[in-house]
Amino acid sequence: MDTQTLIQPPDKTRVRVFISTGEVAGDLQGSMLIRALREQAATRRLELEILAIGGDRMASEGATLLGHSLTIGAVGIFESWPYFMPTVLMQRRVKRYLRQHPPDLVVLIDYMGPNLAMGKHIRQSLPQVPMVYYIAPQQWVWGAFTARDTRRILNVSDRLLAIFPEEARYYQEQGGHVVWVGHPLIDRIPTPPDRLTARSKLGIPAEATVVTLLPASRHQELKYLMPTMFKAAQQIQAKIPQVRFLAPVSLKQFHEPVEKAIQHYGLQATRLEGQSIDAIAAADLAIAKCGTVNLEIALMNVPQVVMYKLNPISAWIAYYLLKFSAPFISPVNLTEMKPVAPEFIQWHATPTAIAEAALELLLNGDKRRQMLAGYQSMRQALGEEGVCDRAAEEILDLLSSASGRCFDGVST
What is the pTM of this model? Predict the structure, then answer.
């Protein structure tokens, strides 16, 4: 045996991790986690096999997709119904595969209904497999079925990795094993991108008034949000004729309907394929659907107006039968439970109300400064950089303790 053979490090330990999420935001957060897991695994001499329900971003980070979930996401009772059977069939295939090829650990990311069904199945069929809930559903905010769903979340969570301080406090009080890691967007946008650089990339003059429109990441939002948002843009254009609108679109199937809507409403707007970071950074103001994009906008120090609408029947059932209530729905406001950005939800989301709030932020310097001060406080509450690394360390530590192995190439 030669000397080189004697000093070779031990072979890497191969482990299989299954990650389940859905929709555009979950795909982004899942991709960031996968990158951090691979980096952390390399230091522990681990070879990771990542299986996933997710989207193209996760696949680009090396995940093998067992199901593609980006085209079947929806919010609301009637909105979700067309995707019920496709989701059930996809989950049935994935569950069968996992029974035949058991993972060493499971990570659930947000996406409450499908993930709780998947988590329950794994608990019953593969009880030895540890599970992590990363970015837990916001039961600390919603008023409907909170206690029941909180218990279901904790039943499938050996460890819960919280991204909001209030989220961590709530689940700890409910008896969960919780670690607050901070919000992953802090890693994605550690400092605000330069406004003039973004404008130069997009060919926009430095002195132009720019409003970025972000109406949809789900099919239902093209129907229920985009018309109201674009009518508000019409009113802004009437008040500020020189305004330019940007409409970045992340999903290819949305390109045509967004382009047609721009023409229909007569907007001085440019549809962009992707480029959402540049489109937001270049803006004086963003008008956006409620979601993770609100945090991206805030971390780029761009004032914003937030809106959301459902099918009116779904909204009526949620408010009056299910007694849905929440002080805020935008994560910008949820971070510290303060009204940083104006929200217009359902019946309050009218073109005139949205346009008036937008014009005030465009024309009133005091209002802009007040919102930017709120952003700074919010940023501090989201934690320090290294969020994804901390999450990856917690996940691999749990994997190590659950398996009884120290993952540095040496068995314990």
Answer: 0.85
